[in-house]
Specification:
With 358 residues, the chain is an alpha/beta fold. The protein is built from twelve helices and 19 strands. The strands form four sheets. Strands 4, 6, 7, 10, 11, 18 and 19 form a seven-stranded mixed beta sheet that branches.
Length: 358
């Protein structure tokens, strides 16, 4: 079968090969025919070595498709079922799951160290234990979440990561208050989803911050009340909050520099939400006095900060009701053969989300 493979960490191009085989099928596992997958910035981060991932590997973790085969013991799925791929499934038995913090379950991360594919030359891993830049993938049954027939595969793929992450950051982690002021730093697919979440919660002012003009324009269409470049953020802070700072600031880039900017633009007693996934050697510096004196809440948000299955269902309900726009997030579509074109679209910021049709 065909799959896009990164041979070594640090390479900026993927090679689409036709000699890749999905492996690992057995009890408790399912084989999925991938129909659509989104390109998430985390895929680029893994390719660059910012996020830990053994190589060679097939990127992609935001996918949807059809069940081809189910292993022994799988009762809730059957061949032909339509599913979204969940890269962080809950085991239901670990301490985090028992506390109701299923987004912190480590079961999914344990899968990342087991090869999902093989080639004549050896094993190939799947990013985040999945690897959806492939025609087929074998995953734990918990990674395959059934979706209703009226949800297209491209929409379901977005729900599998970016939308759940951004929407959940506003609805679950921050629990944005009606009438509040919000700034979102980084307005790709995840940041736009956070903007939609803040709008749903009734934020009065939502300032979108991004260096790319097309993304700023898109943010206005999704609910931002104004959109500025990073250099214009200080003026927006003055105009919207009289210089006090925003009630909520979402950092959706994953870098200490933008996290520091987000902290400085959060009002005293306000909330900074860290959504972007950054590198282990990139440290955010805060002094002990400002932590005490400013009393700002710093809330990391992992995969939307809530139960994944509940978040999926809520997102589908909101989408059906027309309360959120998911189709509009897909600004580009490319076949798997042109995957490197999608990478360029993400790197330059010309795409909110590119759908890779497989």
């Amino acid at each position: 079968m065909r799959a896009a493979v990164l041979h070594e960490i640090g390479q900026d191009k993927l090679e689409v090969l036709d000699d890749v085989e999905a492996v690992g099928f057995g009890p408790g596992r399912v084989r999925v025919r991938v129909r659509a997958t989104g390109l998430c910035h985390s895929d680029l981060s893994a390719m660059a070595g910012v996020l830990p991932q053994p190589a060679p590997f097939v990127p992609g973790h935001e996918g949807a498709g059809e069940i081809l085969e189910v292993g022994e013991g799988v009762r809730h799925l059957k061949p032909g079922d339509r599913v979204a791929v969940c890269w962080l499934p809950a085991c239901g038995a670990c301490p985090a799951c028992k506390r109701g913090q299923t987004q912190l379950c480590l079961a999914g991360f344990m899968n990342a160290g087991t090869p999902n594919f093989k080639r004549p030359g050896g094993d190939v891993f799947g990013f985040a234990g999945t690897g959806t830049f492939a025609e087929e993938v074998v995953v734990d049954a918990g990674c395959a979440v059934p979706i209703p027939d009226d949800v297209p595969f491209d929409i379901a793929a977005l729900i599998g990561c970016g939308v759940t992450t951004g929407l959940g950051a506003a609805l679950n982690t921050a629990d944005v208050t009606a009438g509040s002021s919000v700034a979102v730093i980084g307005c790709g697919g995840v940041g736009i989803s956070a903007i939609q979440g803040a709008r749903l919660k009734g934020a009065a002012e939502i300032v979108a911050v991004d260096p790319v003009a097309s993304r700023r324009e898109a943010a206005l269409n999704f609910g931002a009340t104004r959109a500025v470049s990073p250099d214009e953020l200080a003026d927006a802070k003055q105009q919207v909050t009289a210089g006090e700072g925003f009630d909520y600031v979402f950092e959706v880039v994953g870098r200490s520099a933008t996290a520091r900017t987000a902290y400085e633009n959060t009002r005293r007693g306000g909330t900074l939400v860290i959504v972007g996934a950054g590198a282990m050697d990139d440290f955010l510096q805060l002094n002990m006095f400002e932590l005490f004196f400013d009393e700002k809440r710093i809330l990391p948000s992992m995969y939307g900060g809530g139960d994944v299955l509940t978040s999926y269902e809520r997102t589908i309900t909101l989408w059906r009701a027309g309360r959120i726009d998911l189709a509009g997030l897909i600004t580009h579509r490319v076949p798997l053969a042109d995957i490197n074109e999608a990478l360029d679209q993400m790197r330059t910021g010309t795409a909110l989300r590119t759908c890779i049709e497989i």
